[in-house]
Amino acid sequence: MIDTEKGRLELSRFTIDMAVRLALIAGVVYVSLLLLRPVAPLLLWSVILAVAVFPLYALLRRRAGMRPWLAATLLSILLLVLLVTPVILLSTSAIETLEAYGHMVLEGNRVLPAPPVSVRSWPLVGERLHDFWLAAANDSRSFLTAHVTQITSFGRFVGSIAAGVAFEVLQFAAAIIIAGVLLAYSDRLSVTVTGLAGRIADARGRHFVEIAGSTIRNVSQGVIGVALLQAALLGLGMLVAGVPFAGALTFVCLVLAIVQVGPNIVMVPVIIWAWFTMPLLTAAIFTVYTAPLLLLDNVLRPILMARGLQTPMPVILAGVICGTLAGGLIGLFVGPVVLAVFYDLLTTWMAAGPHEEKKA
């Protein structure tokens, strides 16, 4: 039929029609993605949060008999409280600490303790560091006046970080509200997403949806949950011990724990500082309390992240690290999902290979 003139004409017409349809579909998809690009991180965070807390949402509906909108509203309020409360506590602690140090400088009191004599013996920088520290401890007002340019630059840097953190907090708050809406309509949305995945890849597509949901929940528990617990316990210890800037240090520990760097690079200098400035018994108790907490993530994270998943722990951990490096905090969740799906595809393809050869 194709060899005839009519057949070639119909084939040409079909090809042109298909090309026009594909071009129109591609154009609509491109414009839609372009319009959604400014709010894509917000929507992605909303989906991640909704998937992460869905088991708790289902528990509220099943055990408490709540309606969907009531359970979603209650969870949204709880998440907002969990988000806003640490921010308020950290901000209050930082403001109070800075205000106290400001009063000490204005009154001419010593802000920093005198450096230990042993600092002079440190290689390369010991002598210079000791003199610098001693000048700052003896006359803080003159020291600040002499370095006002550097302090101003550092203040601008800290201000830009604070502005970025404030924006992220607002974005998280908006994502929590949208996640509540998604949870309220989760029954319809789950049917739609599962149907779409099944339309694309049949049963394998629905399996990928299950893998993505389980991976997001495990990563949220193993990374975010453990980081929050670890940072909270470290912050509590610093507050009780009277460590300056405990709120800011706690926030830094939280961020470092989430991005898989760990709070050790902050807490080890704090422990060393405690032995130089605190009474011996207080420093010893603070060290005994803090040291096990620095290993908490190494114990709990593998257990929580690998629970209930067929994907090996090294694959999930590689996705967490590589995703964080490539996409920041969102990549923390997207990376493990992508690698988990890739691993499942790879194992399925390898398992099907010998059977195909036998059939041939």
TrEMBL record:
Entries under Pfam families matching the protein: AI-2E_transport (PF01594)
Membrane-protein topology: Multi-pass membrane protein
Keyword list, A-Z: Cell membrane, Membrane, Transmembrane, Transmembrane helix, Transport
Keyword hit for Transport: yes
Annotated InterPro entries: AI-2E-like (IPR002549)
Assigned GO CC terms: plasma membrane
Compartments (UniProt record): Cell membrane
Transmembrane regions listed in the UniProt entry: 18-36, 42-60, 72-95, 161-185, 226-259, 271-295, 315-343
Family statement drawn from the similarity comment of this UniProt entry: Belongs to the autoinducer-2 exporter (AI-2E) (TC 2.A.86) family.
Alphabetical list of PANTHER family matching this protein: TRANSMEMBRANE PROTEIN, TRANSPORT PROTEIN YDIK-RELATED
Protein name: AI-2E family transporter
Lineage of the organism: Bacteria, Pseudomonadati, Pseudomonadota, Alphaproteobacteria, Hyphomicrobiales
